[in-house]
Amino acid sequence: MTDYEELRRLMVETQLVPRGIRDARVLEAMLKVPRHLFVGESLQHKAYDDMALPIGNGQTISQPYMVAVMTELLELKGDERVLEVGTGSGYQAAILAELAAEVYSVERVEPLAVKARERLERLGYDNVHIMIGDGTEGLPDKAPFDRIIITAGTPEVPAPLREQLADNGILVAPVGARFSQQLIRLRKREGGITEEHHTPCVFVPLVGRYGWKE
Ligand code: SAM
């Protein structure tokens, strides 16, 4: 029988720590969440490899390192309300649910959203709310959010998401061209926004009113 706990330990020790992930809470969450339950059965043996994997409907579960980096950049302490755009498998949402108070995650592809919701329920995450729709519009009736994470590549940060970020909030997103982006982190302070540039990356496109056109 596969020892998934051991595979998670190896993932953390060989992929995350050597590349500079330091936040102990993030490492703990990556050790805990059973990533193999977020992919199809035929891919479970690859779930802890250093790569993104297909999850159906032309979409992917992000590479473990990318999940860890983005989560670390969010600087979660435990009491935040978080918006994720791009639920996909629900794996990133589970990591966020371990580290924040409440998570809203929006997915435009209905079958993925339904599967992710079932998985998260089965695993006992009762602080995650999966919504179906165009996440580039955010969730105006649930805003503001202390943290926002966009897990699909976007030409720019959608204006509604900038607006729905709370004061002292942080937003992390892959921003750039269709096939190559850079992680950026926005911080909102007293209404002003500062921007930092981080790791280069490649994500599937954010498709919607304020993202890429289909
Ligand atoms: N966070 C996911 C996980 O842990 O499995 C991986 C996300 S995958 C790289 C990107 C996801 O964003 C896809 O599932 C895609 O359907 C979704 N997406 C793209 N455009 C979107 C939009 N406008 N609103 C919501 N979801 C969107």
Describe this entry's structure for a reader.
The model has no long low-confidence stretch (mean pLDDT 97). This protein starts with a helix and ends in a 13-residue tail after the last strand. The strands form two sheets. A seven-stranded mixed β-sheet has the order 5-4-3-6-7-8-9. Helix content is 28%, strand content 28%. The chain has helices at 4-16, 24-32, 64-73, 91-99, 110-122, 159-163; strands spanning 53-56, 59-61, 81-85, 102-107, 128-132, 145-150, 165-176, 181-189, 192-201. It is α/β, with parallel strands linked by helices. It binds S-adenosylmethionine (SAM).
What are its keywords?
seven-stranded mixed beta sheet, two-stranded antiparallel ribbon, Rossmann fold, 214 residues, alpha/beta, 28% strand, binds S-adenosylmethionine
What's the gist of this structure?
Helices cover 28% and strands 28% of the residues. It is of the alpha/beta class and 214 residues long. The chain has a domain at 52-57 and 69-201: Vaccinia Virus protein VP39 (Rossmann fold, 3-Layer(aba) Sandwich), CATH 3.40.50.150.
Write the layout of secondary structure elements.
Blueprint: H1 4-16, H2 24-32, E1 53-56, E2 59-61, H3 64-73, E3 81-85, H4 91-99, E4 102-107, H5 110-122, E5 128-132, E6 145-150, H6 159-163, E7 165-176, E8 181-189, E9 192-201
Parallel strand pairs: 3-4, 3-6, 4-5, 6-7
Antiparallel strand pairs: 1-2, 7-8, 8-9
Helix pairs in contact: 1-2
The chain binds S-adenosylmethionine.
